[in-house]
Amino acid sequence: MGGVSFESPLEIAYRVCLWSQLTSRLLLRLTEFEIDTEQDLYQAVKEFAWEEHFDENAYIAIDFNGVNRSIRNTQFGAVRVKDGIVDRFFERCNKRPSVDKQNPDIRINVHLKRTHVTVSLDFSGIALHMRGYRLESGDAPLKENLAAAIIDRSAWLGEPMLDPMCGSGTLLIEAAYRKLKLPVGLFRARFGFEDWLGHQSEMWRSIRDEAKQSYQAKNDVQGPIFYGYDCDAKVLDKAQRNIERAGLSHLIQLEKRDVADMVPPCEGPGYILSNPPYGARLGEVPGLLLMHLQLGQHLKQQFSGWGVSLFSGSPELLNMLRLRAEKSYRFMNGPLECELKNYRIAPEAAEKEVQPVAPDFANRLKKNIKGLQKWLKQEQQQCYRLYDADLPEYNAAVDRYGTGW
User: Fold this and answer.
1) Each residue's pLDDT tens digit, 122-176
2) Distances from the Cα of 168 to the Cαs of 174, 188, 219, 269, 314, in angstroms?
3) Beta bridge partner(s), residue 398
4) What confidence tier does 288 reach under pLDDT thresholds 50, 70, 90?
5) Which of 176, 245, 255, 277 is at a distance of 20 to 30 A from 398, taking alpha carbons?
6) Which among 2, 38, 43 is positioned nearest to 22, based on CA atoms?
């Protein structure tokens, strides 16, 4: 689940680290074996030739995944793997590698499924979604490889793109990488294979130099062709710095705008791709309802012929757009189940009258206001109950204080 395996020359593994937008982690499989007990695990790990992959001076960390009847705790499994490794080194050179969970030279991944154990070297090191350009972000950032997957599932074909709630600019940057076919890992400081004894430094240097040349050649494009709006000036400043670190300032243009004021940034139809806030970490529900209503109205009135893809953890909020989706895809954003919906704004959408939301509720409020006018004037009341669950399907109370609350 969530992974693929392949066999290749070492060169291909290096290229995956530099070029793949979707990969989260790349593991180099070292050995596999069957176990019945934790002692079997220890012994099999101890018998493996670790000295061919790192020396006794290395700092190591163990990631252990899976449990069975004899190994019921992943931390215990990691300890037994560590014991097997350090005991082998101690018997051969009277020195043990040290453990450093935060900044290891070598990270070892162990996966247990029933009795089958797979031991791998973490080839990529820190997760590959950490490209190196995004040192600053907003309150609810998308992982870079999730943003790339969203772009992959959208119907965007390379036309000018707008993100009207761009946050730290991740979707725009990843879309620019996709359009120009740029090496996304070029700005990373380090990869996991760099302290591995099998590392071919000259081959890696050649591949990296080739990627730099490709980046410089392909990035020589006139812009802008990507546009970002956001209502928060501080977040836009962070996005601008991220874009500069990615070397894409000439392609991406940012502007402070609210959803209620959004307009097409260029002539001709383009594509809108965005991750609007959906209440999991940002915003309050009433404000989000209004924002999605305004977004839907602006799309119909201002963006005729444009394609739209919106990624959200709240299908109910997307329903407030009053648009019919052509395609829908499910994603996991960490523990949150989310959905990507692709739309196409028909030219005739702007001509249709925008229908009011909850017309029965709106009519009842108008009726109550009209019925109270004489009494309010007579009693000189400014604080009163306007609505008290008059309609069963709108079970709420509305109190009015003065003219504005």
Assistant:
1) 999 999 999 989 887 666 679 999 999 999 999 999 999 999 999 999 999 999 9
2) 12, 18, 21, 25, 21
3) 387
4) confident
5) 277
6) 2
Indicate if the alpha-carbon torsion angle 38, 39, 45, 51 is positive or negative.
positive
Per-residue pLDDT, averaged over 95-116, amounts to: 95
The neighbouring-strand residues paired with 162 are 227, 272
What does the pLDDT look like over 320-373, one tens digit per residue? Answer: 999 999 999 999 998 889 999 999 998 866 555 556 668 889 899 999 999 998
Alpha-carbon distance 170 to 168, whole Å? 6
β-pairing verdict for 252-256 and 226-230: parallel
Tokens 């108008």 sit at which residue? Answer: 366
Lookup: tokens for 127? 């997760």
69 and 28 Cβ atoms separated by less than 8 Å = no
Cα gap 171→46, rounded to integer Å: 45
Rounded CA-CA distance 172/180 in Å is 12
Q: What is the CA radius of gyration of the chain?
A: 28
CB 275 within 8 A of CB 142: yes
Q: Burial level of 232, CB count in 10 A (0-12/13-18/19+)?
A: middle
DSSP label at residue 350: G
d(CA 23, CA 285): 34
211: left (phi over 0), alpha (psi -120 to 50) or beta: alpha
- Please check whether residue 300 is in contact with residue 308, taking contact to mean a CB–CB distance below 8 angstroms: no
C-alpha to C-alpha distance for 315 and 249, rounded to whole angstroms? 34
- Can you tell me the distance from the alpha carbon of 212 to that of 207, in angstroms, rounded to the nearest whole number? 9
The C-alpha atoms of residue 15 and residue 208 are separated, in whole angstroms, by 9
Phi-psi region of 215 (alpha: psi -120 to 50; beta: other; left: phi over 0): alpha
Q: Distance between CA 43 and CA 24 in Å, rounded?
A: 31
- SS3 for 274? strand
CA angle, 326 then 253 then 264, to 5°: 45
> Could you tell me the two tokens for 229?
């709006």
CA angle, 228 then 230 then 236, to 5°: 80
